[in-house]
Amino acid sequence: MSFLSISRLAPRLLSPKNAACVVVAARNVSASTNLKDVLADLIPKEQSRIKNFKQQHGKTTIGQITVDMVYGGMRGMKGLVYETSVLDPDEGIRFRGYSIPECQQLLPKAPGGEEPLPEGLFWLLVTGQVPTEEQVNWLSKEWAKRAALPSHVVTMLDNFPTNLHPMSQFSAAVTALNSESSFARAYSEGVNKAKYWEFVYEDSMDLIAKLPCVAAKIYRNLYREGSSIGAIDSNLDWSHNFTNMLGYSDPQFTELMRLYLTIHSDHEGGNVSAHASHLVGSALSDPYLSFSAEMHQHKNRMQIDQNNMDDYVRLCLVIIQVVPGYGHAVLRKTDPRYTCQREFALKHLPNDPMFKLVAQLYKIVPNVLLEQGKAKNPWPNVDAHTNNTY
């Protein structure tokens, strides 16, 4: 993704003055509402910047490789330039330099809403620019326009057995959407390498637009007797259309989905799923296949209740050596993505049984981990809320 703007390595190798200039330049908002037009202007500049950067620093050594790194799945190994987010050990994730509270404040919101729209974070991730409301509205309409699923994908989803895991269905559907790939067609026809980004853009936009339809179709088949997901409303944002397709009309749930999708939009480049996507994409596979590779992670979890939480935590430590949702390879404090979900739950659903369960774990798990000496960071990460509550 060489067209993205702020290199993780640049602040280390450029002078502070030059690095600051790069950041400020990246945050100048383009007047155009069409994302492809904005990228057409940005990409040649970024390609030139990266070319110059490589010429100046291409032979610079940025780290050493140890045997522990190799056996540890490349942990701590510098092997990827990743520009859209950085996971700081002390303050958590930053998207293009902005913390989650800053994104909540700066990014456009739906009329009457309080949480940022994921369309806004997508624009920020891709361009390095905080978008205007007009740019976000354009993106909502563009995704609505691209959302329809091909009939063969719908038929495939309808024919899956109900005992097939939803994530297996999701991954299979994304792989099947490869039939629609503009990049795959253009590549087979020998398109010039300089044009690759245009077809990656088209595939990525189509895929993002279709993902809520795929997810809603799977959900309806499994939990709503195969009822229709309904039609996309071009006047609604991406999250609102998704909650409608799921069959929920509570405005608070839509607000939660906006927050949830925003904070889960990116996770640095070194975790398993992001690395898999980059690895497959580096072989010039199209975005559908790259994203499908990223999704092949199923996690089994023990069912718990208020009466067996302490036992659950200790059993996890015996069997799998970790407590899912607690600790982090990088973070050394409570994950701010956990914190913003907790704050939302305290505000909107403090008496929800599942939230009470998660809140109780927050009181129990860190003490057990500290007592057992099992974690440098005993505090919850994003999965403690994401996978256990919603």
Automatic annotation (TrEMBL):
Classify the main location.
mitochondrion
**Cell compartment(s), UniProt:** Mitochondrion matrix
**GO MF assignments:** acyltransferase activity, acyl groups converted into alkyl on transfer
Keywords from the UniProt entry? Transferase, Tricarboxylic acid cycle
GO CC terms, sorted: mitochondrial matrix
* One Pfam match: Citrate_synt
Record's family? Belongs to the citrate synthase family.
- What role does it play? Key enzyme of the Krebs tricarboxylic acid cycle which catalyzes the synthesis of citrate from acetyl coenzyme A and oxaloacetate.
Report the protein name in the record. Citrate synthase
**Lineage of the organism:** Eukaryota, Metazoa, Chordata, Craniata, Vertebrata
